[in-house]
Amino acid sequence: MNFEILKLEDVTIIKPDKQLTIFNFENISNPIPNINIETKGIVLDLSETTEIDSFGVGVVVRLMSLAKSNSKKFSVVVKDNKVLFILKIDKLDTVIPLFNNIEEAIKHVKEKQ
Using DSSP, how many helices (H) and how many strands (E) does the chain show? Predict the structure, then answer.
């Protein structure tokens, strides 16, 4: 899995490939990308992701946990209805702020806690 990691001002944006599935990870024992957590928040940009499985959901949860354990805000951008459905069926929308555009997600993580 290749993650594109961008730094926009004081926010880290993580953007995976189109498929966030176990078949796209070379190292399934450590699927989380190395990121600098010295930011205000982390945004997982799934705006171009069209497929996610339970392993991918686990990656989302691990990123949320990483952010939370470092007192950082976390949000997810999701546009694909299938991906959104999977996140909602797993009730992640109750613990992770989901947005349909990157601007709102960035604004959320920059807000004071």
Answer: 3, 7
> Which CATH architecture fits 4-110?
2-Layer Sandwich (3.30)
List, run by run, the mean pLDDT of 10-residue segments along the chain (113 residues): 84 91 77 77 95 94 92 95 96 96 95 73
- Tell me the pTM: 0.91
Shortest CA distance to 7 belongs to which of 101, 113, 111, 109?
Answer: 109
Sole residue written with tokens 């909602």: 88
Dist CA 24 CA 31 (whole Å): 10
* Helix locations, the chain, DSSP H: 54-69, 81-89, 102-110
